[in-house]
Amino acid sequence: MKKTATPSKAATHERIVDAAARAIRRSGYNGTGVADIMKAAGLTHGGFYAHFPSRDAMLAEAADRAGSEAVVLMERVAATVPPQQALQAMMQAYLSEDHVKSIETGCATAALGSEMPRQAPEVRRAATRRIKEMIDLVARHSNDWGQSEAHEQALVAVSTMVGALVLARAVDDARLSDALREAALNHFTQAD
User: Fold this and answer.
1) Is 55-191 assigned to CATH 1.10.357.10?
2) Nearest Cα to Cα of residue 176 among 164, 162, 159, 190
3) Whole-angstrom Cα distance, residue 59 to residue 32?
4) Domain spans of the chain?
């Protein structure tokens, strides 16, 4: 009789973190329960503490994973176009209709930003690190890279992108959602 291989503890841990990263974006931090995450990962609730010392530790890893996915996606978008078009391409991808609809796999900052002040320090720290990475990524692709104002302009760009995405997702009027996204994109196109 053949013995079936069991997944390693590291692979199982990754499955849990992936499930948690999707869940926090879909349902928020407070709407994300350990039992639901373990079920989504195909595991029982009882195995949770073999992987995490606490719910907050899991949420910190989930926030880190979700934030990392957004940064990696923007890096991939930037790599597909000439350098002088990278920032515009990243903004178009970020403010796309697909991203508005992809809350479960989209930007964690837009999905969870208003909940962040009430989270444990380790969760906030993970999210903050990824927000800083996004700001740095935008700054590196700005026309003013290397100049003192590049960082400040990146702060404005990321704030505008996240704010426009939050509002575009919040409204129940598709035309207004589109207008919010387009206005943000037009603002940055005209600024160039």
Assistant:
1) yes
2) 164
3) 9
4) 55-191
